[in-house]
What does this fold into?
Amino acid sequence: MPIRIPEYLPAQDVLLGENIFAMTSSRAAQQDIRPLEVGILNLMPNKIETEVQLLRLLSNTPLQINVDFIRIDDVAPKNTPQSHMEAFYHQFSDVASKKYDGLIITGAPLAHLQYEEVKYWDHMTSILDWANRHVQSTLYLCWAAHAAIYHFYGTRRTLLENKVCGVFEHRVLAPNNELLRGFDPCFYAPHSRYGHIDVNQWNSIPELEIIAQSEQSGVYIAASEDKRMVFVTGHPEYEGQTLHEEYCRDCDAGLSPTVPANYYPQNDPDNEPVVKWRAHGSLLFTNWLNYFVYQTTPFDLNQLAVNSKVKKDTK
It folds into this structure.
């Protein structure tokens, strides 16, 4: 598919090197079609790395997609040049009046912070409420999934002493759900988080269906029946080395992290990690774009209805 990205975005060279079709704004303007409008609220510290990961997964569809990168606040990111943020990211206030076919909200490395302790929590809740009025389908990843569940349904995560980190086997619980179309009955996905929501807590929310789960890491994917909200507690976007880089970072910081489970051969960090989640991660994003976004969104985004099927009144 052609992903429409800003001119000179660093991810462009990486994607073209992988034979992924990414077109610039000037070329996209010559095509007479209605592209999908997808926003990405990127909360990860290394913005450029996350951009590449997500754009790669958005590439496997014949649809044209316009991508807007959105920042949560004005604070300069620790691991991304401010010049990059100014060149390629929108302030939320600049896009607040816009309607989107799809929105992706990434995870965030907030460790043991309670939600109310997060410096941008007020901004986050405003964006969550805004998404229910302005977005056809929102995909929440890792921390964002737990944050949205807490905001909309009052379900608070448990903060674990030991990080859930590694590559875990999952079972498809709803084989007829279009989000998992083409999935094997058992598949793998990476996790890297301290937060955990028990399956009984998920089941207590009647508006949601658990569609994939792991005995080791718990609920992986849950979705609303109307397809407006998808919660993914892991990181299907991670590259092969991402968990390794996180592990090395934590080691260098003196945190004595647990070796990521089911990741290194013989559980030895000196061995090259085994990647066994890439195909299902790509398929998850493709299915979301096709069945939860493209097949449900109105042609005229001004006709987008408010998502009223959440307990919290966001009107």
User: Anything to note?
Assistant: The CA atoms of residues 106 and 141 lie 5 Å apart. Residues 3-158+197-238+282-302 form a domain with the Rossmann fold fold (CATH 3.40.50.880). The chain has a mean pLDDT of 90.
